[in-house]
Design brief:
alpha/beta, two-stranded parallel ribbon
Amino acid sequence: MKTILILGANGGTAQILIQRLLNETDDELILFLRHASRLAQYQDNGRVTVIDGDVLDQDRLRQAMQKADIVYSNVGGADLAAQTQSILKAMAAENKQRLIFISALGANYEVKGNFGSWNEQAIAAYLPGFRESDKLIQDSGVNYTEIRPAWLTDEDEIDYETTQRGENFKGTEVSRKSVADLAFKLINNPDMDQRASVGVNKPSTDGDKPRWIE
């Protein structure tokens, strides 16, 4: 049995992961999010602790992290680098090593061609945060796995392939269920993809942009 701290626990991928961990493991979960009332359905679950907090609040974050064996981050936003720095600072202070970090395609400058050019413009406000976070994590010394998903869908499927740092990104889309499946495997096999940055996409979805974009 492990204890998993899930940061940004109200995110769509995080919620899929939470359900799989509760249904398929005996792990205990610490769910950390702003406005904890959004996950009130877990308040009476004996394996779950729900904490209302902001990852920029070091005292609150360190307290939440004390019992964690693995830290899973699903946080995001234009201030992602500041949040990442706070997470890494708390991990150092609490002597935590294993981090699974949800990033995005483009964090490694790995998306090429017309899709890469389109993606640079589409998420221009967020890419600097993803890229700075990538560097912070690499330089931190923690045992990390960074996950770089393609554009996310809510398709009811687990269908994906992966690429590693230094390889060109493949595809344009991937389901949240697929990303949660990869995170689930990492939690259950902590030796998998150590100090790695993993791109994840649905096979055969290459194109100049995601299929639903006009």
